[in-house]
Amino acid sequence: MKLAFSTLGVPGLPVPEVARLAAAHGYHGVELRAHPEEPVHPGLDLTARADTVAEFKAAGVEILGLAGYARVAAPGDDEPVLAEIRDLLDLARDLGAPYIRVFPGGGPDQEPAEADATAARRLGTAAEYAADAGVRILLETHDSHRTAADAIRVLGQVGHRQVGALWDVMHTWLGGEQPSESYAALSPYLGYVQVKDIASATDTTPLPLGAGVLPLAECVEILSRHGWDGWLCWEYEKRWYEAAEPLPELLGAGREHLARLLNESA
After folding, report:
1. What's 202's DSSP letter?
2. Is the overall model pTM greater than 0.90, yes or no?
């Protein structure tokens, strides 16, 4: 498996510094948070996009994907959501990133079946654009669809190879699923896996990998046992928890922890 980290852990850090951090600590790739607060977002002009590609290429680091914020199940008109997804797909194509992340984002007053149908309709429409761009759309296990069982209700309706799943191991665990259940459901759709660690179900402040309660060893063991050879991406939510330790100081130990889990599961 290849290892990456998300720039959610280094909010606002310039691209050259992100690329250097990844290379210095032995990460194969980076997931870029695609938000106007960040150096990389859909508003970048073509020159800035080319410069971003060049920085990562020079560092020998891959751009794993773009973590976008489109909410595919959200109530309302389809077009604004589809436009947001198209902008992300265009950016990913220009950066050579194979994936974009979208959220479910179902509303609290929606019936689950309505939220599922809305998400599936939008993802099915966006899938054709994604195919032309050569990029895959990944629905993250998150918010209204935090478990794998929730996510596959949508993905099963879409049935398109350009639409898959991003397994956030925290959310499926918080939703009460065992890693074996999550993997079994998501495996036909799985793009990559977001790993992290937290103190408890009620305290989701990010911790160094291995310092919390999430079943990371079990997740890696299941992936290894089934011969899955994709990406593990450390999503350290520093942007939302200012008091959390700085991620750059943790990257080396985090990579070593993941490498140890991979060796133990081999």
Report:
1. S
2. yes
CA distance to 8, 66, 93, 130, 137, per residue, from 89 (Å): 19, 9, 6, 6, 8
Backbone torsions φ then ψ of 6, nearest 5 degrees: -95, 145
């948070």: which residue's tokens?
Answer: 33
Nearest to 85 by CA among 136, 40, 45, 39: 136
Cβ(236)–Cβ(206) below 8 Å: yes
Half-sphere exposure of 129 (CA within 13 A, CB side): 18
Going by C-alpha positions, the residue among 29, 94, 89, 35 that lies closest to residue 56 is 29
Angle at 251 between CA 14 and CA 198, to 5 degrees: 110
Check pLDDT > 90 for residue 266: no
Residues in the chain, total: 266
Residue in this structure with the two tokens 């990456």, named with its chain if needed: 4
